[in-house]
């Protein structure tokens, strides 16, 4: 049995007129609006690429920060060793 909204369109079809912001919210809505390929190619693929770039940037930054901390600790250790050697002599 088909249910129709007051305007005479099948329930849910009016929402499909809202465009990609509605269609591509999830897989079910993409199917409902016959927009699965559009969402995969134009929306989800782009979002995945942005997420990858964010992760790469975050990872690179995190590694740099840790390396900088290690270098700083190592530099401080070197200064202490040098200072101790100069005091001992």
Keywords:
75% helix, disordered N terminus
How would you describe this structure to a colleague?
It is a single chain. This protein is mainly alpha-helical. The protein has one domain. The protein contains 4 helices and no strands. It has helices at residues 13-16, 20-23, 27-32, 36-88. The termini are far apart.
SS field, number of helical segments: 4
Strand content: under 5%
Order of helices and strands: HHHH
Biggest beta-sheet profile: none
Mean pLDDT: 76
- What is the approximate shape? rod-shaped
Structural class: mainly alpha
Query: How many individual β-strands?
Result: 0
Total domain count: 1
End-to-end C-alpha gap: 96 Å
Low-confidence stretches: 1-9
Fraction of residues in H or I helices: over 70%
Radius of gyration: 29 Å
What topology does this entry show?
Elements: H1 13-16, H2 20-23, H3 27-32, H4 36-88
How do you describe this structure in short?
This protein has 89 residues and is mainly α. 75% of the residues lie in helices and 0% in strands.
């Amino acid at each position: 049995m088909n249910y129709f909204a007051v305007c005479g369109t099948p329930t849910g079809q009016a929402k499909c007129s809202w465009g990609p912001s509605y269609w591509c919210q999830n897989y079910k809505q993409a199917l409902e609006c016959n927009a699965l390929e559009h969402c995969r190619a134009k929306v989800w693929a782009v979002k995945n690429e942005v997420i990858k770039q964010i992760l790469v940037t975050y990872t690179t930054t995190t590694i740099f920060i840790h390396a900088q901390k290690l270098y700083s600790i190592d530099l401080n250790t070197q200064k202490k060793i040098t200072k101790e050697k100069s005091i001992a002599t």
